[in-house]
């Protein structure tokens, strides 16, 4: 055994792997709440319409209102994390999740409901960038990608639990609009269910340490040493502490947004543009639209509404399975291969969906009608698309955003990239109905296909591999 291997074995043996996994799992509860808060709204639409007498436009705004807070939450989370700490921002997000859950269920007016949902958006935006960032800053480079990928599994798990909770509550009451416990309608309890994991998240966050990288930036060297010792053992802690300090020594000041600009050239650092590109392409490939249009697609193929629900459950299971594949592969084959292979796979499957839709026609009720063969092509292609997304861009984009920025600009870089991700999400969501009415379904999906094709070249040309690199080795 050579000296490098021996040294690596010693470091690994002193490492408190169980503790690192434990604190990382606590951080991923933010991802679970991200998914739950995004999915819970689906079962409450009838209740909202009945309670607030909303117009279609008003209902659409109530449903989408969370997205207004997401971009803001993601942007300010990155900035505040540089001031108050990663753990502190996660604690704030847990409080906001709890407030949103209670407020959304208790709302007696559309305005109060929208305010509660926007608060939830702040929490979702903050958790979406801070959970993977925290994991990246405490985990060893050897398995950092695998732990950060669990975040995507948590998001899908949150969506699944929200759907399951909504279904069970509505079935118990008879309908989402019917009274359940204490005389309150089932749709209100759907929101209140989120209070339980929110409270658990808050309590558990009080038991985990602050990020050692943040502590070094704030010149709390002894606190950082204690955390690093608990994570990696005393010997490795000193080594890592020296590496973190060295990475900051050339430009050690309080992180600020202007750090994203290269002082020598006066231009925004290339790594920032790469982060924005990753965040934007994840939405431009149309993943949310595929999910939103799923029920109509399955019924167009000939399935009943009940069968469509089962297919959605299948899609969720496939998504989790795809993420588990990524957990096994991401620290072996790397981030970049998964991204470009995922892009190529999404391009091919989106071509199948768009091609199938191009052959369809509208029936007397205005619904898409496909032949049996084209319907099955659309069904298979859409599910394969979901698999490719969830084994690549779904988890890997968040992994890379959490680890690709140098220590000095990590908070600011996450702020800008996270805001870009949620802004793109909002834009895709809002424009889909407009594009559908204007250019049709096949042409709309062709736009997402084009984005998938372009993303292949973007990854190959601009994205640099981060597999196996310590955070102190990140440059940009």
Low-confidence stretches: 1-12
Assembly context of the chains? single chain
Q: Strands of the biggest beta sheet: in what spatial order?
A: 1-2
Instruction: Give helix % range.
Output: over 70%
Radius of gyration: 23 Å
CATH architecture of the largest domain: Up-down Bundle
Kindly identify the CATH topology of the largest domain: Growth Hormone, Chain: A
Shape: globular
Q: What's the average pLDDT?
A: 79
Q: What is the total tally of β strands?
A: 4
Termini separation (Å)?
A: 35 Å
Name of the top-level CATH class of the largest domain: Mainly Alpha
Into which percentage range does the β-strand content fall?
under 5%
Summarize the helix and strand pattern as letters. Answer: HHHHHHHHHHHHEEHHHHHEEHHHH
How many helices does DSSP assign? 21
Q: Indicate how many domains the architecture comprises.
A: 3
Structural category is mainly alpha
> For the report, how would you describe the main beta sheet?
2 strands, antiparallel
CATH superfamily assignment of the largest domain? MFS general substrate transporter like domains
Question: Would you kindly provide a written description of the structure presented here, covering whatever features stand out?
Answer:
α5 runs antiparallel to α8 and α7 crosses α19. The chain folds into three domains: 195 residues, MFS general substrate transporter like domains (Growth Hormone, Chain: A), CATH 1.20.1250.20; 42 residues; 222 residues, Growth Hormone, Chain: A (Up-down Bundle). It is mainly α and 476 residues long. Strands 1-2 form a two-stranded antiparallel sheet. The chain is globular.
């Amino acid at each position: 055994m050579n000296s490098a291997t021996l040294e690596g074995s010693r470091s690994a043996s002193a490492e408190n792997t169980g503790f690192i996994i434990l604190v990382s799992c606590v951080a991923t509860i933010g991802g679970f709440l991200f998914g739950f808060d995004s999915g819970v709204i689906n079962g409450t639409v009838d209740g909202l319409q009945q309670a607030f007498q909303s117009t279609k436009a008003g209902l659409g705004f109530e449903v989408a209102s969370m997205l207004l807070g997401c971009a803001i939450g993601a942007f300010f989370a990155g900035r505040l994390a540089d001031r108050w700490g990663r753990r502190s921002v996660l604690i704030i997000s847990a409080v906001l999740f709890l407030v949103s859950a209670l407020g959304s269920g208790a709302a007696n007016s559309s305005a109060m409901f929208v305010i509660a949902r926007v608060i939830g958006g702040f929490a979702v935006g903050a958790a979406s960038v801070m959970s993977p960032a925290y994991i990246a800053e405490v985990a060893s480079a050897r398995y950092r990608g695998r732990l950060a990928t669990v975040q995507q599994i948590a998001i899908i798990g949150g969506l699944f639990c929200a759907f399951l909770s909504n279904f069970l509550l509505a079935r118990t009451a008879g309908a989402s609009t019917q009274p359940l416990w204490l005389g309150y309608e089932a749709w209100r309890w759907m929101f209140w269910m989120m209070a339980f994991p929110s409270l658990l998240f808050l309590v558990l966050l009080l038991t985990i340490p602050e990020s050692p990288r943040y502590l070094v930036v704030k010149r709390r060297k002894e606190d950082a040493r204690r955390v690093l010792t608990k994570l990696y053992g005393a010997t490795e802690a000193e080594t890592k502490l020296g590496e973190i300090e060295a990475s900051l020594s050339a430009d050690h000041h309080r992180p600020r947004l202007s750090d994203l600009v290269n002082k020598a050239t006066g231009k925004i650092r290339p790594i920032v543009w790469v982060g924005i590109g990753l965040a934007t392409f994840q939405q431009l490939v149309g993943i949310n639209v595929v999910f939103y249009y799923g029920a109509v697609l399955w019924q167009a193929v000939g399935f009943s509404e009940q069968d469509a629900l089962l297919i959605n459950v299948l899609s969720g299971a496939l998504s989790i399975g795809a993420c588990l594949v990524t957990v096994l592969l991401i620290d072996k084959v790397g981030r970049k291969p998964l991204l470009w292979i995922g892009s190529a796979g999404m391009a091919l499957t989106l071509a199948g969906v768009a091609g199938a839709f191009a052959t369809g026609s509208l029936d007397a009720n205005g619904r898409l009608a496909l032949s049996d063969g084209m319907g099955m092509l659309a069904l298979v292609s859409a599910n394969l698309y979901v698999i490719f997304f969830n084994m690549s861009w779904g988890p890997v984009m968040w992994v890379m955003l959490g680890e690709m920025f140098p220590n000095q600009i990590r908070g600011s870089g996450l702020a800008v990239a996270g805001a870009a991700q949620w802004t793109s999400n909002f834009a895709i969501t809002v424009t889909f109905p407009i594009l559908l009415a204007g250019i049709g379904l096949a042409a709309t999906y062709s736009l997402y296909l084009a984005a998938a094709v372009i993303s292949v070249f973007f990854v190959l040309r601009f994205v640099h591999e981060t597999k196996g690199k310590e955070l102190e080795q990140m440059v940009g």
